[in-house]
């Protein structure tokens, strides 16, 4: 069986303290997020529409100090936790728009990538 997915790549500028200390000791990252999406109804979709929906979701976090956002107020914003939160939120968002989120990859460096999925696709 063939596994087919569309790959979307996003960059996000954030600051955080992986272990909540103080905002003064925050450090900055440009994180890269890769999403693998599948159109579950096999109907024609305008892929720029789902891309814009995802971009709107990420606007909440663009330039933000994550420790002060609602998603991370009581959760340390480690790369793993950021990935889990984004996966959980985006899974619902893309499903409501005719897509299934297969995998989310998030990295703060090109050599360290956290990947989360509920299915094995590759």
Structural class: alpha+beta
Helix content: 10-25%
The residue-averaged pLDDT reads 88
Going across the major beta sheet, what is the strand order? 1-2-3-4
- C-alpha termini separation: 11 Å
Computed over alpha carbons, the radius of gyration is 15 Å
Which residue ranges are poorly predicted, with pLDDT under 50 across at least 5 consecutive positions? none
String of helices and strands: EEHHEE
Number of helices: 2
The total strand number stands at 4
Tell me the quaternary state.
single chain
Indicate the overall shape.
elongated
Largest sheet at a glance?
Answer: 4 strands, antiparallel
Strand content: 25-35%
What this model shows, in words?
The structure is a single chain. This protein has 122 residues and is an alpha+beta fold. It is 24% helix and 34% strand. The chain contains two helices and four strands, in the order E-E-H-H-E-E. A four-stranded antiparallel beta sheet has the order 1-2-3-4, covered by helices on one side. Strand 3 and strand 4 form a beta hairpin. The model has no long low-confidence stretch (mean pLDDT 88).
List keywords for this structure.
4-stranded antiparallel β-sheet, 4 strands, 122 residues, 34% strand, alpha+beta
Question: Which secondary structure elements does this structure contain, and how are they paired or packed?
Answer:
Layout: E1 6-16, E2 27-39, H1 47-58, H2 79-95, E3 99-109, E4 112-117
Antiparallel strand pairs: 1-2, 2-3, 3-4
What's this, in brief?
By secondary structure, this protein is of the alpha+beta class.
């Amino acid at each position: 069986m063939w596994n087919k997915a569309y790959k979307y790549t996003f960059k996000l500028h954030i600051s955080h303290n992986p272990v909540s200390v103080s905002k003064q000791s925050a450090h900055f990252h440009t994180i890269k997020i890769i999403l693998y999406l599948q159109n579950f109804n096999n109907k024609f979709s305008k892929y720029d529409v789902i891309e814009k929906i995802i971009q709107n979701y990420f606007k909440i976090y663009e330039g933000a100090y994550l420790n002060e956002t609602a998603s991370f107020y009581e959760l340390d914003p480690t790369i793993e936790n950021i990935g889990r939160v984004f996966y959980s939120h985006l899974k619902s968002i893309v499903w409501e728009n005719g897509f299934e989120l297969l995998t989310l990859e998030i990295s703060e460096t090109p050599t360290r990538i956290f990947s989360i999925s509920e299915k094995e696709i590759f």
